[in-house]
Each structure stands twice: as C-alpha cells, then as structure tokens.
C-alpha cells in the first residue's frame, strides 16, 4: 500500500534532516543526488523545513557561484540546546551543546564522599546552570544523564543501589524540578559509553561487541546486532557481581566485593601494582590511571632501548661513571620487569571476566573502556587477547577504547541529541520555538 502524501512528505523531511546532520550543509542539488528525490520534491521539502525553522541558508557552494542553486542549507543549530551529564561517585561533568551536537561549554566539579546529599545535589545543579549560561543558552530542550547503577526499564528511573551516593537519585529529580520544560532522561553510564564507542569510537565497524568498563568500578555493556541490550531488570552487564576465582568470598545481592569487582576495580588494581613494585610516574598521584600508565611507559621504553642496555661493570676505582650509568640501566630494566609482571597479572584478571562474557555471548569483539582501558592501551589489550585466545575457541578481538573516560559524556550527549531531533524533526506542525 503506497504511503499517503503527508506520510511521504514526513519521510522525505526526516531523510533530508538526517543527511544534513551527517554530511553538514548541502545544496538543493546535493540533497537531490543523495536522496534520489526529484528536483520539485526537494524544493518543496526545503521550503517546508525552512518555514518550520529547522533549516536555513548558511552560505553558498563555491566563491564563484551565485543564485538559488548555490545556496547551502544547514540545520538551525541554535533551535534547541542540550545538556549531557556524567555523574560519578566522586563528582559530575556537564557539557552543553546545540542541536547538531556541537559542544558550546563544558565543566566538571568534584563532590566529596563526605558531602551531605542536599549540598551535593545543589552543587551539581548549580554546575548545570552555570554551564548553560556559559554556553549562551536560554533554556534546555533535552538533558541526558549517565550514572552508575541500575535503570528500571519500565520507569526509566535510577534504582536505589547500595554503595552509590544518595545524591545521584536526588539529582535526577532536582533537575526535573529546576528544568520543568526540559526532557530529562537517565541511562547507565557503561551503556552510554558503549553507544559512544559504537557511533564515534573503537566499535564503529561492529554491530556486535561488548564494552568492558574499567574505571573506579567495573561494568559491561552488551550490543548485539546493533542494539543495546539492557536485560529484564536493566542489569545486563553488571559484571562486578560475577563470581570469579581468586577472591576471598562470593559477592552478595547488595555487595559486589568478592566478585569480578574485587579483581579489576580501581582499588584492587592499585594494590596489585604495589605488590608488583610499580609506582605512578614521578610527580603524579598514585591513582589507578597513574600506575597503569607508568607501567605501560616503562615496558615501552625498555622495548625501545633493549640494544642499548649496558652491562654492569665491576665496581673498581676509576670506573665510577660507567658504574653509575650501568646502575641506572639496571634500575630501568628492573622497573620494566616489574611493570611487565604487573600488566601480565592485570591481564590475567581481566581475562577471567572477558572469557566469561565470550563464552556466553560470543561477541567477536571486546573493547577495554574507561580510564584504565585508555591508560593500558594496546599493551594491555594485546595481553588480554593473548590469554583469551588460549582460554576459548571463539575468535575474539580485544580493542582499546578511543574515547576513554569521556565516552560516558559523549554517549549522554548523543542520546540527548537523538531525542531532541526525534521530537523536533517529527512530522506534523512544527511551531518555531527556541529552546
């Protein structure tokens, strides 16, 4: 059954807007070529979208060209403004963007664990309002929030979770109260990171993959056949609760200690580095990112300088300079050996979790995400892949995130942009209104 004229117009409008989002400004001729529509049809849709305030002339194609055929049409970016939040246990980051997703302002603030719920919420909300003002936006159309914990698939609300700050749930409600005209939604942080890796990061060529999030805590996101899978209760990917060998106890329904979290969360990784004799780089705080980055740097430096490592001469009078140089060389070698031992041990731990995921889902690709995945880089990913190849017959590529810890904020921004465009680009009457 052929589409009605109004349905056909709506389909054509949406197709043109999507192309303008993906390709940037286009002429009517380019829209005709990319859509396959007739010249009169393209002219009609350009007129409709311009009257609706969604499209405007933004320039001309070529310095020597003039006339209506040279006009470049683009989405009216300031038609709506969006906000993205990355909510962590230790703070919050906010970015405000226009309708095409161009970031206009961005800022982060730490929120200490000893801060009461009320002040913590107020500090986070004040940050949002400040970034909105810096971006030059009058109000927000859509707000996307990424937060740790379970999202109820029925209500879309962040569920109560032990071990997570109470201000997280209060923040969502507070933003809805302070921004009554905005569409506020919340999603699990790892799920948003996976969407960002799929759209803009390491998994752009994959319809099926798993993101293993490695940061302050652990998590996983599952994308199968191009779709994010959340599970019956919204808990797909709660890999921190996975029972694994090598821990002192089993996890419980309220505490992931004893699960994979005890092997791969930030505190466990820092402790492992200390046992292996690896410290953060000089002048850097002893954090999980610091020790992993330092280990990768030591191993890489040692590999590059293998032919130049001096032998240790006998300590005799007249050879002090040579001895000092050799001493420094031996110290570097010992540091590299300790670093390699640490990365091997960390890869052993990560492989336990990855192998479990591979055995159940056979994703073909696992992305090591988060700040630790970024710090470990190809050095850590290669070690994990070597172990997975020995542990399972299922071919699995282990990749390094290209977005790192910024993937959550990027994913929140992408979902906010999609939601805003879905509403504003919908068929029917579109009153010209700025958000």
Automatic annotation (TrEMBL):
CDD domains: ASKHA_ATPase_ROK, HTH_ARSR. InterPro entries: ArsR-like_HTH (IPR011991), ATPase_NBD (IPR043129), HTH_MarR-typ (IPR000835), ROK (IPR000600), WH-like_DNA-bd_sf (IPR036388), WH_DNA-bd_sf (IPR036390). It holds the Pfam family MarR_2. Keywords: Kinase, Transferase. It comes from the Bacteria. One of its GO terms (molecular function) is kinase activity. Residues 16-65 form the HTH marR-type domain. Belongs to the ROK (NagC/XylR) family. This is NBD/HSP70 family sugar kinase. The lineage of its organism: Bacteria, Bacillati, Actinomycetota, Actinomycetes, Kitasatosporales.
């Amino acid at each position: 059954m052929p589409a009605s004229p109004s349905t056909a117009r709506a389909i054509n409008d949406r197709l043109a807007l999507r192309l303008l989002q993906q390709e940037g400004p286009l002429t009517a001729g380019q829209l005709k070529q990319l859509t396959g529509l007739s010249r009169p049809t393209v002219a009609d849709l350009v007129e409709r979208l311009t009257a609706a305030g969604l499209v405007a002339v933004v320039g001309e194609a070529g310095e020597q060209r003039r006339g209506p055929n040279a006009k470049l049409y683009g989405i009216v970016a300031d038609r709506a403004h969006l906000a993205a939040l990355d909510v962590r246990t230790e703070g919050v980051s906010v970015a405000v963007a226009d309708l095409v997703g161009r970031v206009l302002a961005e800022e982060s603030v730490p929120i200490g664990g000893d801060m009461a719920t009320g002040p913590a919420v107020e500090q986070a909300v004040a940050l949002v309002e400040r970034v909105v003002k810096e971006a030059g936006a009058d109000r927000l159309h859509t707000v996307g929030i990424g937060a740790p914990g379970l999202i109820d698939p029925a209500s879309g609300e962040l569920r109560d979770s032990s071990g997570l700050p109470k201000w997280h749930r209060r923040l969502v409600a507070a933003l809805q109260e302070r921004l009554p005209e905005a569409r506020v939604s919340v999603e699990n942080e790892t799920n948003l990171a996976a969407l960002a890796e799929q759209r803009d990061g390491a998994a752009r060529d994959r319809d099926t993959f798993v993101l293993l999030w490695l940061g302050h805590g652990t998590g996983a996101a599952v994308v199968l056949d191009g779709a994010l899978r959340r599970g019956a209760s919204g808990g797909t990917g709660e890999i921190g609760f996975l029972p694994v060998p090598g821990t002192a106890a089993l996890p419980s329904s309220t505490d992931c200690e004893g699960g994979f979290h005890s092997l791969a969360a930030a505190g466990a990784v820092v402790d492992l580095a200390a046992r292996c004799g690896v410290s953060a780089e000089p002048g850097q705080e002893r954090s999980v990112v610091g020790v992993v980055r330092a280990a990768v740097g030591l191993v890489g430096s040692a590999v590059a300088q293998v032919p130049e490592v001096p032998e240790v001469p006998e300590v005799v009078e007249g050879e002090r300079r040579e001895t000092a140089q050799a001493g420094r060389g031996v110290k570097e070698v010992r540091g590299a050996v300790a670093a390699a031992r640490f990365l091997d041990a960390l890869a052993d731990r990560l492989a336990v979790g990855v192998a479990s995921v591979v055995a159940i889902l056979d994703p073909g690709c696992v992305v090591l995400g988060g700040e630790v995945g970024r710090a470990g880089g190809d050095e850590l990913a290669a070690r994990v892949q070597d172990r997975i190849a020995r542990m399972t017959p299922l071919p699995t590529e282990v990749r390094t995130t290209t977005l790192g810890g910024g993937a959550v904020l990027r994913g929140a921004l992408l979902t906010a942009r999609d939601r805003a465009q879905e509403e504003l680009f919908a068929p029917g009457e579109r009153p010209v209104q700025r958000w």
